[in-house]
Amino acid sequence: MRTFLVGILISVAVVALIAQVALPRYIENRVRDRLKAGGGSATVSLTAIPALSLLAGRGNSFEARGSGLGFGSGARGASPFHRLDGFSNVSMELTNLATGPLRVKRFTLSRCQRHEPYDLEIEATVTARELAGGLGTAAGGQLGGLMGALATGILGDAGGLEIPLRLEAQVCSQEGEPQVRSARGSVGGVPAGRLAEIVLGGVLGRL
Fold first, then answer.
1. Three-state SS for 51?
2. What does pTM read for this prediction?
């Protein structure tokens, strides 16, 4: 009987050890592939003890690095933070992204403890034409879209002029929804907080 129980305990320990090693790697690969769906390269690292907590969306740390990734229109999906909120330590650093009208040179998102706000930094450029058209629609609703369409026609050759953008913000997650607590920076009069939501929606929607 004792030998039988020892055998069961050893089997459970072996299964737990395999899960601790294999499960994070499996989920890392899935997240990496989603990030790379629009092209580019990415690496993802997850830690969790026990690893099975990852199945509930919780863990100790989430780290992602990438370059040359594409995120389509950058439209914000539902609850973009819900895949990150369960991790205590979050660190994302992505370079040379394309998300909607913005060409993002550098995107960083980080926090050190669960329930603390995220620190967001974005360095990007946008052309005057894209700002007036695509970004104006995203930031200003139907009226913004109408004004953007008019401005696009008026700009002519000047529409290709690139406008630099630098944005710093603290972002809280309320049930997965981004709530910009404080933000610095704007481009073409579009508020920094709205710009942060547009980029976050495009990037985090892939996680």
1. helix
2. 0.77
